[in-house]
Amino acid sequence: MATDFTPPTTEEPGMPGSEADLQPKPEWQPRYPGSGRLKDKVAIVTGADSGIGRAVAALFAREGADVAILYLDEHEDAAETKRIVEAEGRRALTVAGDVGDKSWCDDAVAKVIAEFGKLDVLVNNAGEQHPDKDITDITEQQLRRTFQTNIFGMFFMVQAARPHLKSGAAIVNCTSITMYQGAAILLDYSSTKGAITAFTRSLSESLVKDGIRVNGVAPGPIWTPLNPSGGQPKENIPDFGKDTPMGRPGQPNEVAPAFLFLACEDASYISGQVIHPNGGTVVNG
């Protein structure tokens, strides 16, 4: 681990949150039969133990992919995601660790290659957020930690994966509606999401000549363990997502199809773009 590695903050001790303990349960189940759109592909999904990551892993498996489930430390949730992937008849590998640690990212990708022999799709989904009412409340540790996880981690994962990605491969990064709208209590988080969008567009320009597509997904408010475990103030949870045009938060299985579309050949002429599953909020970009 690098000497400048920033450890997790203690301000929200419940993070990243357990899906096993969450009520009501997020909806991760794929909504339709598979059609082989990722047949015999190998995908890495970071943050795949719960929430959007679990839904993506489940849908990718339904569509024929073997899935490497990368996650921080929610072992029970990760084991359940592994069970879900294997129930679809696909192979699964769980690897626990911190995407903000470059050496761990290198080791994780090496384990995936050793297990599956190749890599076709990288989904950079892992992230963290810490609400603060004023910019002066954001500690240096929190600021460094949020950037380390949310954007440094994507750089590290792509750097580790790049030697194994061949023409036809796809990278899908998770940005956020906060990049487009802003979020008063999520200054550092929103800033990282802006960086992720710029990273996605620039990486697309860098890799498109090699036949590797890079796109992003910018979810709105989605019901996952992240928000009730400290990602939002407790008093905001009862009305979470009600300010969207649809009047409700989204479910992980309403976001996962955007990742699938961008990962498979349906999106063969799309790169450098962002899809917005956000409950109907109109944003520019």
UniProtKB/TrEMBL annotation:
Q: Does the keyword Oxidoreductase apply?
A: yes
Signal peptide position in this chain?
A: none
The record's section on PROSITE patterns has: ADH_SHORT
Kindly state which keywords UniProt assigns to this record, in alphabetical order: Oxidoreductase
List, alphabetically, the CDD domains matched: SDR_c1
Q: Where is the composition biased (Low complexity)?
A: 1-13
Family named by the database record: Belongs to the short-chain dehydrogenases/reductases (SDR) family.
The record's region (Disordered) falls at 1-36, 223-249
Recorded protein name is: NAD(P)-dependent dehydrogenase (Short-subunit alcohol dehydrogenase family)
Q: What InterPro entries has UniProt attached to this entry?
A: NAD(P)-bd_dom_sf, Sc_DH/Rdtase_CS, SDR_fam
Concerning SUPFAM superfamilies, the annotation shows: NAD(P)-binding Rossmann-fold domains (SSF51735)
Instruction: Kindly give the Gene3D superfamilies that the UniProt entry links to this protein.
Output: NAD(P)-binding Rossmann-like Domain
